[in-house]
Amino acid sequence: MPIGAQYTQVAAHLAEVCRACGRDPKDVKLIAVSKTVEAPRVQEAIDAGAHVFGENRPDQIMEKHALYPNEEWHFIGNVQSRRIKDIVPCAALIHSIYEEHHLARIEHAAEACGKVQDILIEVNVSGEESKGGAAPAEVLGLLRATEAFDHVRVRGFMTMAPQGDLDVAERCFSDLRELRDRMRAEWDCADADHLSELSMGMSEDWERAVAQGATMVRIGRAIFSEDFA
Ligand SMILES: *Cc1c(COP(=O)(O)O)cnc(C)c1O
Hints:
Blueprint (H helix, E strand, L loop, with lengths): L2 H18 L8 E5 L5 H9 L4 E4 L2 H10 L4 E4 L8 H4 L5 E5 L3 H12 L4 E6 L16 H8 L5 E7 L7 H21 L10 E3 L6 H6 L4 E4 L1 H4 L5
Parallel strand pairs: 1-2, 1-8, 2-3, 3-4, 4-5, 5-6, 6-7
The site of pyridoxal-5'-phosphate (PLP) has 12 residues, from strand 8 and helix 9.
């Protein structure tokens, strides 16, 4: 199926799943993860109605943001200190922050381009060693560390579930939501009210994530791959 048709199908399915679990489809943002395709293919998704895209490499978000500056670009990849200055001007939201020393760099880059940078804290809920993200016990400390920076605003949390067992994935998503609820109660800061976003769910497990309260799903292969079943 062409990319446009796949996007349309995923968007319709997402709306259906939202309604089935009593949620308003407007409350779940579909992020089309275009990291595996060349820039011109992004247009096919735009033509089908996609306006929010995810990228995991600085060079790719820069190139695609330059080509499609009116779309919303999210950075979902591993963050390296020296590339923060490249990512910040392009990214409406950075999903993958979990190292405290990155905050000052983001502050500096955001101030330089006159914006407040929205971020999510990536949490390694499952504890898999291969995965990035803060341990749940580190999250409150990270939230407190952000209070020092006027140009950094935490909007919520992101996680990646282990692949292969949907029940395990769903537990990981509900754990992230519970952590968010706990942080809202424990973080003694006005910004705690703004911890509204839960970025969770990918091509294989997004239905479970929506059932557990995801406000953003990051879908790549189901939209951009020709052979995702
Ligand atoms: C690639 C990627 C996705 C999309 O994964 P698919 O399985 O292709 O839907 C989502 N989130 C992150 C962080 C990714 O790197």
